[in-house]
Structure formats: structure tokens, C-alpha cells
Write a structure and sequence with these properties.
Shape: globular
Largest sheet: 5 strands, mixed
Distance between the termini: 72 Å
Structural class: alpha/beta
Strand content: 5-15%
Number of strands: 7
Radius of gyration: 25 Å
Number of helices: 25
Oligomer: single chain
């Protein structure tokens, strides 16, 4: 894998080997070319991620999904097997698993599976054996590194002379940096989609230029394998891959001049075949490991739940994930996001027509002010919108629209309506940088960086201004992840140390966030009157006369048939942001 600009796009001078040798002979210094190589960039990013990870508590996470993964991997390591079983202490009295404390857990034969991506869990097992929760972070770190390298290659394909500025900006000052430090699939899935985009562009270029059909088929097959593998980790990869495949067909049909459309449409078939191979391989792997098909079932559940969310909710959450700088589902979040979009477009268009720096500097100053007000008022927390976390993506979108460049608009923007239509409802606010549309942000950022040198010093300064804003937002994300990981690690451990024999949660996401801590605890999840009655019955059937109930601070004492509350305490998960009440219930004699 070598990131070099094509000759027609580079515009640079060839490397002077003698000057490099002279530089090495003067004290062994590395040349600029070496320092900008993919290997050097990857090592630098990995060192940065490892350093920042020391400020995180490995027992706390950015998401509840991460808790389910770590619990699964820890159980496999403890038992010294490869079966993804998180167990269930109350299976004798709740055979369906309705009250299982880890949301999303399904019964597969004799085991209980909380798997969203089996390949990642299997890859993490040997790392867990070596170093536990810190060691498995190597996987998302590598995912972020390869995502940044993919963005660098895309920027070359979009006209950049060098890839290293894009690699550093994406790796250090975008949501990619935040997702590198949590054991989640996002960075790996994003890397696969990034390389899928790049290889698809290779296939388009080969088809249009009439180069070797073998090269076009190989590039498109690689893209299909990448999107298929990504879809086994992130469901939105199916949408991005589908749109990319349509773009491959459309580009070939539109730009070919020899009329041999059928022969050059074969790359799209090759891409589809590669995707199907990876999807089928994952289904086969799941059937071998635990005799089921968790990923396919999850996809079916997502599609079947589309109609459960109203149009207004879908539109609101689309606006939140696209641009909102605040983590709320209130209409003001959409309004603030719309203002941000208008500001980015205004400054981008204006700066292409003028050499003045007042607009970008004003935007950076405004961004810094908003960030400071947010930190003082709320402390570090989620910044939900893609453009709020990666403002360069907004500049890239405006540039592509002004320049009438179909490629970035089709690949990055066209999939958005479908992603928003199928995304999981209710999870738009508590996320970082629009996690469902990270691929769009990566593509548009790469495009903006690809135009870095096309408009002279003016646009370079404008881009630097946006990089500063992106870096500040990323710093908030890293600070928030540090605070959240420490808070939840300490809070869930405090819940596990409670003396009550059974604990019932009103929120099934909270116990799953405990990861391995809660696996051996007698915990249940009950979110309404019916499930609470069932949970109380399980407590009695198991032979216990007391339990603890974990509820929200604004909740009054909840009624359990045959039990009465005797004590109540508060446990802080995030200072000033998230607290739960733990109420002790005793059986009425």
C-alpha cells in the first residue's frame, strides 16, 4: 500500500536521492519523504492513540454496545473457549430472556449471545488474553489508522499533491480519533468503507480510460469485499456499498465512448459478488461458532422497525446526526445545525471569491466561543452532528456543489436519506459526530483536503482555520470519553458492590454498559409495569426476599407487588450529568 499522487495530479518534483542520502549522512535524520510515508504516519498515529488511551478507564466506554462486546470477550477468555456466551443466571425462571440485563441478548440453543459483530470479537480474544481491556483497543486504533490512510489516498484521487495532511487531519482532528479509543466497530468499518470507495474510483478510472479489464475487475472486487466486510460490522455499509455500485455502473455508462458498455459493466458485477461473498462468509462463521445468525437477524430487526418511528422523529434525528452541535432531540438542535451549515457554506463560497481572511477567522472565533460556553455550561459531552465534529466535511460538500463534481456528491451525500430512514431511532443525540454517517464525513473531508492546493494560499488558510475548529471539537470528544469512562467504570462497580442479592434496572442499556463487571451479578432489566412484576416474581422464585431497584432521579418510588421500599441512595455516573437512584425493597411479611 503506497500513497502516491498520480503524475497528472502531483505537480511536484521527483525525489532527489542524493539530497536524501546527504541528509541521512548528517546525523541520521529522516528525510521529509520518509517522515510523510504511510508507515511513519501510522506509527505516529498509533503512538498518539496509545498515549491518549492512558487517560481513559478501560472499564468504561463510549457506548453500551462496547460493554456487551467486552463482556463476551472476557467470558471467552475466562473459559478458554471460543463460544460467545454471556450467560444468564435467571434462565431457569425466564427462559425467553426477556429480563436479561444486557440489552439485545438472544438465546441461541444453550448459550446467550450478545453479538453485533462476531469477527471483531474473535479477533479480540487473543488480545484480551495478552492484556485485557487495554490490549483490545489495538483493534479500533488500527481501524482509525487505516481510515486516515484511506482518506489520504482518496484526497490524492480528488487532486491533492500529497496525502500526509489529510492523514493527519483525519487521524488527529476528526471523529476518527475518538472512535480509536473505544472497543467499537466504527473505526474498522469506516476504514473498510474508505478503501472500498478508493478502490471503486480505481475501477471507474480503469473502465473509462480503457485500461486492463483485469485491473478494473480486481479493484471492484476488492471494493466489494471491503464493503461486504464493513457490512458485517456496520449496517450502513450496505447502503454506501449499494450507492457506490450504482455509481460504478452510471459512470461507466456515461463516460465510455467506444460503446462496449456490457464488457465494462462487469466491474459492478464483480463488486456485488465480492460483497455477497463477505456477507455469506459471516453467516457461515456465525453458524459454526454458535449455530445462529446474529448479524442477519439484527439487520432484519432494523428493517422491520422502520415503520415504528414517525416522520417527524426521522427528520429531527436526521438533522441532529447531520449537523447539530448539541446532544438533544429538541428542535433547537436542528436549528443550531442549520445555522452551522449556512455558516460553513457562506464562508466557503465567500472565500473562493476573495482573499480576505475575515470570514474564516470569524467562524473559528465563533466556534471557539461556542465550545467554551458549552464546556463551562455543560462540561464535556456528546457533540452529535457530523458537521459540528468535522466542519471540513461541510466545506467539502459546498466545494463539490459549487464545482459540480458528481463523484463526492453521489458517494457521500446520496446515501444519506437511506441511512437516516433505516438508522436505529432514539440514538441520534447520545453519539459522537454522527456515527451512522461517518463515511460521508470521511469522503467530504478527503475532498476538501484534495482541493487544498488548487486555490492558492487563500484556500489553504481557510482550510487551516477549519482544521483548528475540528481539533478543538476533537479535544472535547477525548476529554468527554475520559470523563465518561472513569465515571461509568466507578459507578457500575459501585452498583456491583451493593449488598442486595438481586438488582433490577429500569434501563436495560445501563447494566450492559458494565461490561465484564456485571456478567456474574444477579441483575435483571425491567422497563415497564409488566416486566417489573415478572422481575419481582423471579426474585421470589430464586428464593430471595429483597432486591435493589435502579431508576432515574426524577422517578418516584416504583410499586412492586409484595415488596416495599426501605432505603434509597444516589450513585453518580457522570458528575453533573448522569445520576441514578438505588432503592432497596424488602418482602412484605
Amino acid at each position: 500500500m503506497v500513497l502516491i499522487a498520480p503524475e497528472e495530479n502531483s505537480g511536484g518534483k521527483p525525489t532527489d536521492a542524493s539530497s536524501v542520502q546527504d541528509q541521512l549522512s548528517k546525523g541520521g535524520l529522516l528525510s521529509q519523504a520518509q517522515l510523510r510515508s504511510p508507515i511513519a504516519l501510522a506509527i505516529g498515529l498509533l503512538a498518539f492513540y496509545c498515549l491518549i488511551s492512558l487517560f481513559m478507564d478501560p472499564g468504561g466506554y463510549l457506548s453500551t454496545d462496547t460493554g456487551g462486546k467486552t463482556a463476551t470477550v472476557a467470558g471467552m477468555s475466562d473459559r478458554n473457549d471460543w463460544t460467545p456466551d454471556v450467560g444468564y443466571w435467571a434462565s431457569e425462571w425466564d427462559s425467553s430472556g426477556e429480563l436479561h440485563p444486557y440489552w439485545g441478548t438472544e438465546r441461541q440453543g444453550d448459550i446467550w449471545v450478545n453479538v453485533t459483530s462476531l469477527p471483531m470479537i474473535l479477533a479480540a480474544r487473543p488480545l484480551w488474553d495478552l492484556g485485557g481491556e487495554r490490549a483490545v483497543l489495538l483493534l479500533p486504533m488500527l481501524g482509525s489508522i487505516f481510515a486516515a490512510l484511506a482518506a489520504g489516498r482518496l484526497s490524492l484521487q480528488f487532486g491533492a499533491r500529497e496525502s500526509w495532511p489529510t492523514v493527519l487531519v483525519v487521524g488527529l482532528a476528526s471523529p476518527v480519533a475518538v472512535y480509536a479509543l473505544d472497543f467499537w466497530e466504527h473505526s474498522i468499518g469506516l476504514a473498510l468503507m474508505g478503501w472500498g470507495f478508493s478502490w471503486s474510483l480505481d475501477a471507474v478510472g480503469a473502465s473509462v480510460a480503457g485500461r486492463s479489464l483485469r485491473f478494473a475487475l480486481g479493484s471492484s472486487a476488492g471494493a466489494g469485499l471491503a464493503f461486504g466486510f464493513a457490512a458485517n460490522l456496520r449496517q450502513e455499509a450496505l447502503i454506501y456499498g449499494f450507492v457506490t455500485g450504482l455509481y460504478l455502473v452510471w459512470s461507466t455508462w456515461r463516460l465510455r465512448s467506444d460503446g462496449d458498455y456490457f464488457r465494462w459493466a462487469l466491474p459492478a458485477v464483480s463488486m456485488a459478488a465480492g460483497t455477497m461473498v463477505m456477507l455469506g462468509a459471516n453467516v457461515a462463521l456465525e453458524r459454526v461458532i454458535f449455530g445462529g445468525s446474529a448479524r442477519a437477524g439484527r439487520s432484519v430487526a432494523t428493517v422491520s422497525g422502520v415503520g415504528q418511528a414517525g416522520t417527524q422523529l426521522r427528520l429531527t434525528e436526521a438533522g441532529i446526526t447531520f449537523a447539530s452541535p448539541v446532544n438533544t432531540d429538541h428542535w433547537t438542535a436542528v436549528l443550531l445545525g442549520a445555522i452551522l451549515v449556512c455558516g460553513l457554506v457562506w464562508t466557503t463560497v465567500g472565500h473562493l471569491r476573495s482573499t480576505e481572511m475575515r470570514r474564516p477567522l470569524a467562524l473559528v472565533g465563533m466556534s471557539v466561543l461556542v465550545i467554551l460556553i458549552r464546556l463551562v455550561t455543560f462540561g464535556p459531552t456528546f457533540i452529535s452532528g457530523m458537521l459540528a465534529a468535522a466542519p471540513l466535511a461541510g466545506a467539502g460538500m459546498a466545494l463539490a456543489w459549487i464545482q459540480k463534481r458528481h463523484t463526492p456528491l453521489i458517494l457521500a451525500v446520496a446515501p444519506l436519506p437511506l441511512v437516516w430512514f433505516f438508522q436505529f431511532p432514539g440514538a441520534a443525540a447520545p453519539q459522537w459526530g454522527g456515527r451512522y454517517i461517518l463515511a460521508t464525513g470521511l469522503l467530504l473531508t478527503a475532498y476538501a483536503m484534495g482541493q487544498w492546493q488548487k486555490f492558492g494560499n487563500t484556500f489553504a488558510q481557510w482550510s487551516k482555520a477549519l482544521v483548528v475548529a475540528s481539533g478543538l471539537v476533537t479535544m472535547i470528544g477525548l476529554a468527554f470519553l475520559s470523563q465518561r469512562s472513569h465515571g461509568f467504570a466507578e459507578g457500575t462497580q459501585a452498583l456491583a458492590d451493593r449488598p442486595e442479592p438481586v438488582m433490577i434496572f429500569d434501563n436495560p442499556f445501563l447494566p450492559r454498559e458494565s461490561g465484564p463487571v456485571g456478567v456474574d451479578e444477579r441483575w435483571l432489566a425491567a422497563w415497564n409495569r409488566e416486566t417489573r412484576d415478572d422481575a419481582a416474581q423471579v426474585v421470589l422464585d430464586a428464593g430471595f426476599s429483597s432486591f435493589a431497584y435502579v431508576g432515574s432521579p426524577d422517578e418516584n418510588y416504583v410499586r412492586f407487588e409484595g415488596f416495599e421500599p426501605t432505603a434509597r441512595v444516589a450513585i453518580v455516573l457522570i458528575e453533573g450529568a448522569e445520576t441514578v437512584f438505588v432503592t432497596t425493597y424488602e418482602r412484605v411479611s
